[in-house]
Amino acid sequence: MKDFNNSATILEIVRMSTEDGPGIRTTVFFKGCTLNCAWCHNPESISPKPQLQWVGSRCIGCKTCLSVCRENALTLTEAGMQIDRTRCTGCGDCAEECPGTALEMMGKIWPLDDLVAEVIKDRSYFETSGGGITLSGGEPAMQPAFAAFFLKALREKGLHTAVDTCGQCRRDALEIMLPYAAMVLFDIKLIDPEAHKKFTGHDNRRIIDNLLFAADYIRSHVHPSDMWIRTPIIPGATATPENIAGIGQFIAAHLNGAVSRWELCAFNNLCRDKYRRLDQPWVFEEENLLSKSFLEELADTAKRSGVDPDIVFATGATCLSDN
Amino acid sequence: MTVPAKAVSQQIKTPKGLSERIKRLRDYYFKGVDRAWNNESTSWTTGTPWDIQFNEITFYIVPETYMLMQTLLSSYRQGARPVDLPEDFWAKPIVERRAWFIKEVMVRYLPKEILPGDLIAGGRFNIQASMCLNKDEQAEFNRLTTGKKGARAAVNWFHGHGYGNAGATCGHLIPGYERVLTVGWQGIYKELEELYARLTDPDKKSRKGAQLRAMMTAAAMPKELAAGYARICQQLAVKEKDADRKSELIQMAKNLQKVPWEPPKTFWEAVQSLWLTHMLIMSDENYPGPGVSFGRIDQYLLPFWEYSMKNGMSREFGKEILKCFWVHANTAYDAMIRNGNQGITSGFGQLITLSGLGKNGPDLTDLTNDLTYVMLEVIDEMSPILEPKPNVRMHRNTPDALLDTMVDMVAESQGAPFLINFDERSMAGMMREAKTAGIEHLINKDNVYEYCPVGCLENTMAGNDRSGTVDCNLNLLKAVELALTGGKDLIAFVDPMTFKTEKIRQDGPETGDATRFQTWNEFWEAYKQQNAYIIKKCVDLYEKSESIRARFLQTPYLSCLVKGCAEKGLDVTQGGAEISFVTLEAVTYATTVDALLAIKYLVFDEKKCTMNELIRALKDNWEGHEVLQALAKNRAPKYGRDDDEADTMAKQVMDLWTEETWKHRTVSTNRRFRPGMLSWNYWAGDGYVMAASADGRKKGQFLSNAICPSNGADINGPTANANSVGKALGGKDETIGDWEDYLNSLPNGASHTITFNPSIIKDPEHRDKFKAFLRGYAQNGGTCLQVNMLDPEMLKDAQKHPQDYRHLLVRITGYNAYFTSVGRELQNEVIARLSHERF
């Protein structure tokens, strides 16, 4: 992974995001993640490299891509486009030529100045809502120098910034980013190290260390001034009373004075198609949305775990049938 | 990353908190054709064999009716009842005949009834009255309208060939209601008398004298009509057994003996005065309420509200009076009640303006008051109901409490306000108008805040302004087609009645063979010429009906309520209003911009095809050219994404057509043209008329609506969409702003619809974000936003079970419609637009 100071691989920029921190936000999704969570809602964000995907509904069947591909990595069959991932070099030529934009490169190199110019377009809405820009991903700390320069440029323009991190990163990455972030969104997925390793590929030792560091940093500095903890509620993985209570106890014991909100983010199955497009299996393929009552029970568990109950929020879609 | 939450299922809104009285009146209204009483148009004749009642010109802007013109004309003629004429009737000029005739019908012929429990008098008002023309005049009128070179043939040609439509249409103004409440009709009458007395004898015998005499006749009508209703109330009071109702009827009689002739004192009198004054405009114009709008009703009714509240009126009774007024306004739809739920069209647009900036002391401040909230409560409790339709004026400092109320109502979906006007951008447009037209004595920074939207969102001043806000509707896209062909239709016109194919001919200027153009600039120059041509063509078409109306179809009663008419002795239909523009409403804006962007991208910048190949593809309706079509659709830049390259093109197109529009005036009435973007429902219907376009659209697919991006093009979400709209209007500039730093090329304003997923208002935290979006829109966006909040599942179910969704209101293009009554294509369109998320 190269970390150029003046450009980064960005998966997507989402404007008028209402779910990534306070107010109306523009969220910049960095490509590349240090974890490999089994439930990941953005599987296309895990690999740091730009990746090709095919969206069937946009394909007009013209086969322009087949003639463009120098590696013969593409085959159009009855079942749709077959991308031979062993051959595809990610050059992006096919996506460049695809008339229907059915072939799409996930991940684009953005120069710093261009990215700054793009994300300040909603400045008026940030000002009226108390919103700003959120660096998310993937893991922004995988491209730390760029992220730090980006945050600094935004700070100089008087914009509110948030860094959304999974915590599995080098300490020095946090050290250079935190001074320019107005707030931190920090994920705690599983409190048990073994379970963490099982579902994400790493135990949570480093994450916990970084979390304590970030909390100390917030307590002892003007910026960042706030931290929100986010916990994905995944059936069969994180969605157990033990895990939620455990995370709550940890927050209560170690993060006082640094955390103002703990969000329980309901599992979402709408990313099913993303896995299919990336030719990746997904263990949660058949999983339904959570029932509202189940999510509420977990929220109750969280509220009784020792944290200030007012900081607990349950977000995300639940089954309609259970309302 | 956030994934869109599934739409929250919504219930259809139901009325709430209605008293027995209002519930009865409302339920009765919704019985529709089953009612014993209704306000269906009755037809009245002078009794001459040549007499006609139906003025088709007013329907030229409704292409759906072109096929029905003769039928409507004949049926009103057959059903017309004779009115006894005075001996000197035919000796008088047309305007005096007409004033007398309308008054005679309204005061002496049309039955007057009070519905049980109703607190407001003024029932029937939909009439089709004789044009009051003598044989020669009628022959001339007929020649000019239905003759071979008449207005009807011209508008048919114009519409059939994809240019749009134009016609001198009724309503669409804010009458001087505030003046009636201040001086009463007696004050208006007195002024007319004085003006008439000051005329020289030759002037008295001239058109001017006739106009003032006709206006005096008309100005006496409200008094005589009110006296008739007062007698009915007295008679009912005598028979009434219930003591409470008896005293109400006695009070109503007292009110009617006083108003609208004298100025009102109490709230009840004021609302009674307002209703009678208003409904008689619809009688005078023979058309049920098309954009006859009330203006700042929460401001001019406030003194009466405060007076009555101080003197013992309960808030609930005040609302009860307003709710009766609401029911009355809806009876406008009875005009063609047998044609279905609401007649031919929907959303008549008797618009009320609420809140907004104004002077209350030396500084510009927010004018939200108790009555603003009362009106919103009335709408909320009565909904779903169509009229009167609210447009809430918002600005940078709108109080949070008002926004909360609005968002609550939006959240319930079925409740207005669905239209939000934005003061800063709107006032910038009005200031631009004043400067461009040299009427800064009439519109300036010391009164521009008194502007009001008409109909849906068309900004004008109040009481002295008629700016023909729906009269001219031009498909800008036609100029792109003509630039590709050097001034000819791309595909031959096929007559829908005879299926005969017309020979393609040279209609526009010869701008050269586009296939030989070497540079984008050459194409742009051709487009500029064709743009000037289609605007001139629209202006010329409008002249036909404008000159007929000015000559034969005066409205002296309405003229009493528009400042300038009495002073000039000139009817409002003849350009009598102090501020008298004709608005050219541009349709297909985004499709035009996107088509130009696609031509530039495909042929000149990226050289994906030759001009010849592109023209071939368009002639073939893209069939067999799917790759090129996909490139046009997906690869060419699009307006509406906050992409500066595309939005620069949008601004160039905007500057070009608006500056061209200002160059024109009507010949017969000397009204200058001004630009706006409304586009009503034409973007849907004309999509079947216009040839395929270079943006990838096939013939038969919808065009873009008003100032909105093309359907599906706004892939960067609502903020990007709004920013593009603001930039297209001119954006902001501290040195050259029209109003403060705001710029606006469209004094009329522009319709902008964004459909939100209901998840945006799912909880208090998100509601705050949505409110912040609206505040941001006030900074960056356009003049008027229509917020849609829809659930696709509910709409799909409504398609399957229309009988269960009779009251389901949806909002399309600035007007309300019952979902089940709009066409399937439009229904599908609403569903398709539901979500902004790309996946």
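The longest helix of chain A spans residues 205-220.
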